Amino acid sequence: MDPQPKWIDYKGKKILYVDVRKATGDEFVAAVEKSKTILWAQPSKVLYLANIEDSTVSKEVMDWIKKNGPETGGKRISKLAVVGATGVKKVFMDVVQLVFSKVAVPARGFKTEQEARDWLAE
Question: What range defines the domain where residue 88 resides?
Fold first, then answer.
């Protein structure tokens, strides 16, 4: 896990990448809070990729998404891809999709980063 969000280039597209693999709930929230700051500094909407494999999706994480997702997502994210939302974390992905659908932002879960990057770059 690298808690510092970073920009990656893929097929000519700029993607904000947040790596929260193996993160605890507090680490997860801290990383997405950092990404929120970066998003608000951008002049336009961006593509967003989060890898949550083997991370802990706590109540705190879910509450953060519900609270911050609509405003930040609706105004700063054009497409959202999440890698690793399997098993119990499928519920997390369901919440993310519901929150972001309310602000017309496509959000999808993927098994691999390659699949996620390809979808974002379409």
Answer: 2-121
Band of the pLDDT at 1, cuts 50, 70, 90? low
Indicate the number of domains in the chain. Answer: 1
Query: What are the pLDDT digits (tens) for 27-83?
Result: 999 999 999 999 999 999 999 999 999 998 888 999 999 999 999 988 999 999 999
Assign residue 46 the CATH number of its domain: 3.30.750
* Residue 31 to residue 51: CA distance in whole angstroms: 11
CA pair distance 106, 122, nearest whole angstrom: 12
Retrieve residue 43's tokens. Answer: 């002049």
**104 torsion bin: left (phi>0), alpha (psi -120 to 50), beta (else):** left
d(CA 31, CA 98): 21
Q: Region 96-117: what's the mean pLDDT?
A: 96
Closest among 110, 17, 32 to 118, alpha carbons compared: 110
Kindly list the distances between the CA atom of residue 81 and the CA atoms of 19, 33, 73, 90, in Å, as whole numbers in the listed order.
12, 17, 12, 13
